[in-house]
Amino acid sequence: MAEDAFTEHRPLLFTIAYEMLGSATDAEDVLQESYLRWSAVDPASVGHPRAYLVRVVTRQALNHLRALKARREEYVGPWLPEPILTAPEVSDDAILAESVSMAMMLVLETLNPTERAVFVLHDVFGYPHGEIAASIGKTEVSVRQIAHRARRHVHARRRRFEPDSATTRGIVQRFLRAAATGEIQALMDLLAPDVVQISDGGGKVVAARRPITGRNDVARFVLRVIRAGTATTRAEYTTYNGMPAARFLTGGELDWMVAFEIHDGRITGLYGMRNPDKLHRADTVHPLDRGGAEPWKP
């Protein structure tokens, strides 16, 4: 049945769409559109359903991404990807965990849509250039050139990544304790000198309109935010985008979340999400799958 094949490959298809779009909501829209197209095809006529579905999702995601680019140019304040709650096993696949991390998703935002599709399909999912060419309507030679250009761009901007682990978890818990007790020196000891804090409020709630850099300014910003909370606000440790993270609930409702980028025992990045439009589905665990490349055979 068409539905069975689509359900089987859904985690892989969602992961591709999310990495191309940076939005779980838009990725789900792409999957819905792709399923409608798939349901109109006779499954018996498709020799390799997964490869066929990857091609359909890639094309739909590219169409969405081109439309999203214009919207994001008008975004109020810093833009962060819609956070996704990830299962612990995501961190066991280093390539997958890094590819959905906040830092990598921000780097992918600097690519044009075609570069992003090629980089995601080739460098993350391992699809050969020829199969990607068939998916995006380019020649294989052109795809190789795009892949080289995108890879050089990403490698020049990517930050070192450490996935969620017992060590990073301990650092975050110490950070939360220091923030809750107002120990600014303890906070600064956990921050790298060039730490960056980025907040996404989307113009809907109060949030820093520009990135904050440096351990002194970031520590003071964190304390101001914590002090602005109410007596009913509590923090919970969790994992978003394969990164150690904390969610802050006020009156039992998710108010904001922060994902932590950690390297060599210090926090190098804090990614705070306050935009309610991006938090409304933050309690949903999204199964992710990088799979293995399957030859394209129509």
TrEMBL record:
Family: Belongs to the sigma-70 factor family. ECF subfamily.
Record keywords, A-Z: Sigma factor, Transcription, Transcription regulation
Alphabetized InterPro entries for the sequence: ECF_Sigma-70_Domain, NTF2-like_dom_sf, RNA_pol_sigma-70_dom, RNA_pol_sigma-70_ECF, RNA_pol_sigma70_r2, RNA_pol_sigma70_r4_t2, RNA_pol_sigma_r2, RNA_pol_sigma_r3/r4-like
Presence of keyword Transcription: yes
The name this protein goes by in its record: RNA polymerase sigma-70 factor
UniProt keyword Transcription regulation, yes or no: yes
SUPFAM superfamilies, A to Z: NTF2-like, Sigma2 domain of RNA polymerase sigma factors, Sigma3 and sigma4 domains of RNA polymerase sigma factors
PANTHER family in the record: ECF RNA POLYMERASE SIGMA FACTOR SIGJ, SIGMA 19 FACTOR
RNA polymerase sigma-70 region domain residues: 6-69
Quaternary structure, from the entry: Interacts transiently with the RNA polymerase catalytic core formed by RpoA, RpoB, RpoC and RpoZ (2 alpha, 1 beta, 1 beta' and 1 omega subunit) to form the RNA polymerase holoenzyme that can initiate transcription.
Protein origin, superkingdom: Bacteria
Residue ranges of domain RNA polymerase sigma factor 70 region 4 type in the record: 102-153
